[in-house]
Amino acid sequence: MSMRELQPGDIVYAATTIQSDGAVPGYPLDSIIAETGTRGVIVNVGHVEEDPDTELMLVRFEDKDRELGPPVGCWLEELTDECE
User: What is the CATH number of the domain that holds 9?
Assistant: First the structure.
């Protein structure tokens, strides 16, 4: 399955360590949101307004207690649908 075919409710994994850009409440600038391999669930799929071909995924990643964190905007290249 192509990453572009994923829909809300689908499970994804962080393909790389995802760090905060300071825009997500509760995550200070440069703090780690998700380590490589962290499981998450897609909440929404969208695109960059200025470039409709650039897709974004809104993802909630699990923490160490398997609780879902706040929604985080991710680029397709930051995600994978395969567990490592």
Answer: 2.30.30
Cβ-in-10-Å burial (0-12, 13-18, 19+) of 60 comes to: middle
Number of independent structural domains in the chain: 1
Q: What is the pLDDT of residues 3-59, one digit of tens each?
A: 678 899 999 999 999 999 988 888 899 999 999 999 999 999 998 888 888 899 999
User: Which phi-psi region, left, alpha or beta, contains residue 77 (left: φ > 0; alpha: ψ -120 to 50)?
Assistant: alpha
Domain that holds residue 18: 3-80
Nearest to 58 by CA among 40, 43, 78: 43
Half-sphere exposure of 70 (CA within 13 A, CB side): 9
DSSP state of 37: T
